[in-house]
Amino acid sequence: MSRQNPLTLLAIASYEKGHAFLRQAKAGGARVFLLTSLSLKESAQWPREALDDLFYMPDESKVWNLDDTLKAVSYLARTEPIDRIVPLDDFDLEKAATLREHLRLPGLGESATRHFRDKLAMRTVAARAGIAVPDFIHVLHHGRLQEFIDRVPAPWVLKPRSSAGAMGIKKIHDAAELWSALEQLGDEQSHYLLERYVPGDIFHVDTIVYNGEIRFNVASGYGRPPMDVAHGGGVFTTQLIERGSPLEQNLLALNREVLAALGLNLGVAHTEFIAGHDGRLYFLETAARVGGAHIADLVEAATGINLWAEWARVEIAGGEQEYQLPPVRDDYAGLLVSLAKQENPDTSAYTDSEIVWRLDKKNHVGFIVRSASRDRVTEVINSLTARVQNDFWAFAPARERPTE
User: Fold this and answer.
1) How far apart are CA 311 and CA 300, in angstroms?
2) Looking at the DSSP assignment, which residues form a beta bridge with residue 77?
3) Considering the entire predicted model, what is its pTM?
């Protein structure tokens, strides 16, 4: 189906990200509008050349008033024929869903969006589809909660249902600690779930879906679980796993089952799994967005595929036009990111030929390395991790930090 007028796309971003998405959307012929947080007005370096207009929503700690947002976008729609609404961050998914419902636009609606934002909803749907998930329960009925902790041995993980990544997650070691934590939550308890802690290795699969068909996916493994890094400190690493290995094949197959069960028909996804020490592979969580923590840069270094740009191409095609994935390169890559005690860390002494990207951010150090050999990527990442820990005081665990 051909369009007589350019497609008008409204991107929503509480945080600054997705520059490549905006540029590709513009290059693909769309009219591109951006709605972002007023608190970013002075600091964000949005690619203005890719934007037909830029609008700000008042925010407090990046929180927008949803009713005001609906009114603002509806007012814009009086003069601009909005065709697509795309959230660039996890925290924008619900806003985009509400706006799509109100304006009757294509894309994930409010119920479907919960499958990709609400950790309870995604686990419930996956479990009903026969997908292995760690034992879990909604923190709601205290009698059933007591039955759960009597049946499922500690430790457990207390998780907020709608926070991104490891934010707000707490490991619980016994019943007394749990009831104390719930007492502190008060009326917020129903916004949490309790889950069996499954020791194991954490993997992620990053995916492009078009008309229900997976057009691209790549599997990677974290060096340490992100929750451990977030709460205990240290260096964050992840790298592509061996292509064609049984582990990769199992991860990609399970990822396909998860996205089909949760109903992602068009877009991108970042999905995480646990390879438990018990030998089972479990679904952990997913998000209908590009993965954070520079994972998109990792994927591009290894494959040549820019997930942000391809997401824009998918949205513009909209399921009505042909979408063709660019050629994919089969290199391996690894990513390292760490906090640094220096405000502007000097990494000029890091001269490994495999380094193809360096993080430019205050009080951070980061690298991406690339090679045709996965073993070489592993070797370099391990070497860099040891050096970063020595050179930059890479975020010691909280118990080892001096009292401030």
Assistant:
1) 13
2) none
3) 0.93
